[in-house]
Amino acid sequence: MNVWVIVVGAISLLFGAYRLRQDLRDFFGAIFVSLGGLIGLGWLIIKFLEWTGKYSIIWPILLSYGGGSLIIIGTIWLLIKNTSVMESKEGRSTAGKLSLVMGVNLIFILVVSIFLYQFRGIDALHHINVILMTILMIDLTFTLLFLCYLLYSLFYQMVPIKEHMNYIIVLGAGIRSEEVTPLLRSRLDKGIRYYKKNNGVKMIVSGGQGPDEPISEAAAMKRYLLSQGIPEHDIIEENQSKTTYENMLFSKKIIEMREGDKDYSVMFTTNNYHVFRAAMYARRAGLKADGVGSPTALYFLPTAMMREFIGILSRQKVLVALICLFWIAVGWYNF
């Protein structure tokens, strides 16, 4: 591995660590740390292959060719298969096809990479190769960003939070009746677990009423908490929010009205795939709060994580534009 790649990896890791030391919810810090970690992992794998190559020719071949191919093909198959599982359990929806999109995307990356390698240096295909390379590099950049986001999301949930809390915010999720859904119930159950560990804690159930919801999510959550033996005086309804950002912002206003200038500690509960993005919204709302995630069915995770990542990119329009413009400029220069 080129020494400059190692230098870039080290700088990325240190810069990301510096940003995360100030706030673990920093998106760019998360991306830089993950990128540095991936480069370091790549270096270790290469060194391992070099070391094993001194003693056996079989291991490097299996790991670099057979193993790599099996991992890629297996990942593609699982993502495509997951789409049919999602449809059978959750019904047909556009979001439910996101794992199919990722699987097809990996096939595209694989096919285009092979094409560019096989037909490199052919003058008659120069312009086509440059266009394909530009598209491929844009695609690879966003795929790498998604991988970095995925890795840090997993890491963020492993960071321990404070034991004593004054407030627990339970983030709402869509309901179809006056009862909470299994997904929303898992968030509430997670909140109840921490409620029982903290004396004098208040639970804020946060979620407004959508156009297709019979009552507000907050009202449905309060009913569930009461049925689980949580005293009514320990439950606070926030029933105006429509988005995760509003969940955090409106809950913060309620807490500040109750606490004034006093110090307080807050945590929130949501599903595991949503924790890091929700923490980013808490940071944006000026609410110092970390979150814990309740378990999510495995078949739901690929689609959920991709949807979360798309949601983050929708708020990072400048970053998206810069990435696209950079690779287009490189392609134009080589055209």
From TrEMBL:
Stretches assigned to the DUF218 domain: 167-311
Name this protein carries in UniProt: YdcF family protein
Keyword annotations of the record: Membrane, Transmembrane, Transmembrane helix
Annotated transmembrane regions: 29-46, 58-80, 100-119, 131-152, 316-333
GO biological process terms held by the UniProt record: Gram-negative-bacterium-type cell wall biogenesis; peptidoglycan metabolic process
GO annotations of cellular component type: plasma membrane
